[in-house]
Amino acid sequence: MEDDVKISRKKPIYPVGIGLNKYLRMYQRDTRLPLAYSELLNFGETAPVMDKYGNDTLWETPLYPPHVQDQLYDALKVVYAQLKASGNTRIVEHKIIDRIEYCAFGNTKPFRVRIINRLNDVYDYFYIKQADASRIYGLELEEILSPNQVNYLVDRDTLVEEHIVGIPGDVFSKSGIHNTEYNQTRIAKEFVKFNERCIISLLGDMRAYNFVMQITPDFDDFQFRIRGIDFDQQFYEGNPRVYMPQYFKENLPYVKLAMEHLNEKTVLQYQQEERSSIVHRVRSERHRIKDLRDASKLQELSAPENIAKLREGYKAFYNNEAYLDCKSMTDIVELNVKNVIRQVKL
Predict the structure, then answer these.
(1) Domains annotated on the chain, with CATH
(2) Which residues of the chain are under the pLDDT cut of 50?
């Protein structure tokens, strides 16, 4: 592992363009929500949210006037019904909004909403964020190119996302990665596959706190899956290493695990397995990925200098002159996928 990757500044918010709007309607991602993101900003003060150990979580609790809070809570229950049950409000008859939390630290400055079933105290979370075009492209590429499904809705400048369940990657690396009940090789294998997905889909800034580890007990062992939860740095940066989780110092425990339990041959095998899986997904979703590519042609998603730098970087990484012809970030993703298809056919 070489020097840590640095991201010097936050990525700007890119508004949803005409082409992406059309795509969202086509694939039923757009809707009309009973409230906008901006309405959640009508608070006067906030109180810090601390974890159970007394550490600052970087989230805050916004304090609303009582009449504003009541209106927001009613609207948020309807939003939850739209996200989870196509708008059927019967599912929220016994639910209450427990709290709203705000994170000014994130690119899209998200609100996290906790909703509880009064009958059994089972709770769930969902998020309200500023609609950012590159983040939405990241969610769509996650749906198409990864083994994971994502659930979200967009209404003009407002993005609603389902909570992705899992153990935060930084927490798992400290308290779970060396659990004697877990097969270390399986964890290392999943990190290699996750790294490969990020390189191909240009999902950036996958530090340990930006992904979660999902653990599923199987009949004879545990299965592991790493899932990205932060898509704010989707194909914006020009440094190729931003899209390679192996280069972030926060991921060093995972890199060490891979170095200890895998050799070059098995790493290549797992990379090839992931590429093959991506090819199968692309073939089954070829119309959708074409529509997503066409939508991107009308959309600004990065700075021209970042595109120029990244195509040079990927040309060197893959030793492929074709990257110099890429005019956008989505051109680079498309060429990545085409190269994967060619490699699998060989």
Answers:
(1) 18-162 (no CATH), 167-345 (1.10.1070)
(2) 1-2
